[in-house]
């Protein structure tokens, strides 16, 4: 569907995108993540033909975006972070104009506009001036523009930025509906949003790929093997004796439980391949120190994101994690860029 091959974009001596490669498969929703200045918007602008690359290539459905721009762009609907709206037009006028710009045949325009309006739930505002619409409805108009021509691929750059919680929910639901018929690449700073709507996650940092995987597999990669938290009633020494007798524990932290008199708080990391919960239960039962709370610890997508980007800053070489759990060594990074993505567009 989309192949990004060894993509580089330099501004003077700084690299906004640094030898970036990944593949987007048909029928998936991809979350495109990275801190500010990571190169997300720059990459999207190159993928859609708005920017030229310094090196590398982007292939859209077999068409090189540089060599066959018209054929490649017909496969893509693009919603920039700031939707390209003409505020003094009505919704219907704007969509008719956008359909004409996209080269949609005059005999098909009315039908396509009607379908795009229906998909984005704009029926009640087609006659209103865009400048009089709320930001949420403006985002819908931008999405309708992206959908026109019904390309196979939708690239959405921060589609919920600046929206209130209700508008975010509405746009998120709309993206889920669109994903039934389109492959979607979604850039977002709202990690819970990515976790809810995306099948795959791409994380980039300093213009380089850190991770390409599903949200579920990312949690598995980052989860400490058999990590558990427990609250145990008993004396500190007795509980520690019970815990230290359990096989398979790599490391544990133990301390009085805050706000719970007579209780001990435990955080346990098990050796790979060990599930120590049953053994811990019997050891505590034998010591007559009952377990009153026991749970496994999971990383949120926010924690995964922060840990991966911090690791990338701390190490000269970063591994890109693939969906099968293997790691591919990335190239030595060039001078990091602190250029904002807004300036890169």
Account of the protein in words:
- A hairpin with a 5-residue loop joins strand 15 and strand 16.
- The chain has twelve helices and 16 strands.
- The chain has 345 residues and is of the alpha/beta class.
- Helix 3 crosses helix 4 and helix 4 packs across helix 5.
- The longest helix is centred in the N-terminal third of the chain and has 14 residues.
- Strands 6-7-8-3-9-10 form a six-stranded mixed sheet, sandwiched between helices. The protein has a four-stranded antiparallel sheet with strand order 2-1-4-5. Strands 12-13-11-14 form a four-stranded antiparallel sheet, covered by helices on one side.
Largest sheet features: 6 strands, mixed
Strand line-up across the major sheet: 6-7-8-3-9-10
* Rg over alpha carbons: 25 Å
- Overall outline: elongated
Q: Report, as a whole number of angstroms, the end-to-end distance.
A: 24 Å
User: How many distinct helices?
Assistant: 12
Query: pLDDT average, as an integer?
Result: 84
Please indicate the percent range of residues in DSSP E strands (runs of 2 or more).
25-35%
Low-confidence stretches: 321-345
Determine the fraction of residues in helical runs and give it as a percent range: 25-40%
Order of H and E elements: EEEHEEHEHHHEHEHEEHEHEEHEHEEH
Which structural class fits the helix and strand makeup? alpha/beta
Number of strands: 16
